[in-house]
UniProtKB/TrEMBL annotation:
Superkingdom: Bacteria
Mitochondrion among keywords: no
Organism: Allorhodopirellula heiligendammensis
Protein name per its UniProtKB record: Porphobilinogen deaminase
Signal peptide residues on this chain, from the entry's feature table: none
Residue span, Porphobilinogen deaminase N-terminal domain: 20-222
Other remarks in the entry: The porphobilinogen subunits are added to the dipyrromethane group.
């Protein structure tokens, strides 16, 4: 233990000079996320450089783990870590497959801001205000199922593309409304876009929604120490629990599975508590399985507790018939 006169050692003192290279795709959301991480690191005196990666072309398709279905959004920037073109990969955690690659460490999960989904329509209507048989755009079975259970007259239609593309389709009149993660809109500085936030009871979010996940090479101590500065334990434990449900039910990002974790009183270790709610639905919204469970965090390894909680919630959902609903949605 250092004596009272020793200088206080801050983690950033041990980071050697040199810029950390942050890989980013060129979409506006990806660029915002990379710049956000650069700004947070700058607050700790850590210099960075953005490495924009061209999207499209063969490089996008190089499989890094043998599978092509999962991780479409995340692979290109992971490849930049493997090729040593960059040191830091910033993801929307929602897009990061639950099966993590051992070559990378999830070095930081920064504080989550807005977790909820919202309904976006030209006049900012609530779901109840939309006309009979309104056309609502979403590509997500999770959102489709919850929309149908709220209003079974709605015509839920598939929509693709990035946030800007979806908004353009809405404003071209292809849909009466669309559902988006509010976090994405806020990151894109669309604060003034007419929208109505769903409550968590109406529309439980996707595992990891609204959070970022930052990967570095597992053996890159410099990057690990630097990114650790941005890690928020409460958010990390919540998303670990949420993602454990998805993994345990073999859900993948296309399954009608929602999960939301929340940590209370983390500062007071003895009272810290993690609560997890997860939902599995039929895509037509008529069947809904829901489980909620809590655990004390105590002084134990929080992540192990979060995994246990996620596993036990997934087990209860499975016992209630979750896998049948997930299979049927494929
Ligand atoms: N799959 C696309 C995607 N990935 C992350 C976000 C938004 C930000 C987030 O959820 O963290 C979005 C758009 C959306 O779902 O509306």
């Amino acid at each position: 233990m250092p004596g009272p006169t020793s200088p206080v050692s801050r983690p950033s003192d041990s980071i050697s000079a040199g810029e950390l290279r942050i890989a980013t795709r060129e979409s506006p959301l990806a660029m915002w996320q990379a710049r956000h991480v650069a700004a947070r690191l700058a607050e700790h005196g850590i210099a960075t450089q953005l490495v924009p990666l061209l999207s499209g072309g063969d490089t996008d398709l190089r499989p890094i783990d043998g599978t092509r279905q999962v991780g479409l959004f995340t692979k290109r920037i992971q490849q930049a870590l493997v090729d040593n073109e960059a040191d830091v990969a910033v993801h929307s955690l929602k897009d990061l497959p639950t099966q993590l690659d051992e070559r990378f460490a999830l070095a930081a999960v920064p504080p989550r801001e807005v977790v909820a989904d919202c309904l976006v329509s030209p006049a900012g209507k609530t779901l109840a205000e939309l006309p009979h048989r309104a056309r609502v755009g979403t590509g997500s079975t999770r959102r489709m199922a919850q929309l149908k259970s709220l209003r079974d007259d709605l015509v839920v239609m598939p929509i693709r593309g990035n946030v800007q593309t979806r908004l353009a389709k809405l404003h071209a009149g292809e849909f009466d409304a669309i559902v988006l993660a509010e976090a994405g809109l806020l990151r894109l500085e669309m604060d003034d876009l007419p929208r109505v936030r769903f409550s968590l009871d109406e529309m439980l979010p996707a595992p990891g929604q609204g959070a970022l996940g930052i990967e570095v090479r597992s053996d890159d101590e410099t990057a690990l120490v630097a990114l650790k500065l941005l890690d928020d334990l409460a958010t990390r434990l919540a998303v670990v629990a949420e993602r454990t449900v998805l993994a345990a039910l073999h859900g993948g990002c296309l399954a009608p599975i929602a999960a939301h974790g929340i940590v209370e009183s983390l500062a007071d270790q003895a009272a810290g508590r993690l609560t997890l709610t997860a939902v599995v639905m039929s895509t037509d919204g008529t069947k809904r399985l829901q489980e909620t469970a809590s655990c004390n965090l105590g002084a134990t390894d929080g992540e192990a507790v979060a995994v246990q909680l996620g596993t036990s919630v997934a087990e209860k959902l499975r016992a209630a018939g979750a896998e049948e609903l997930i299979q049927a949605a494929r």
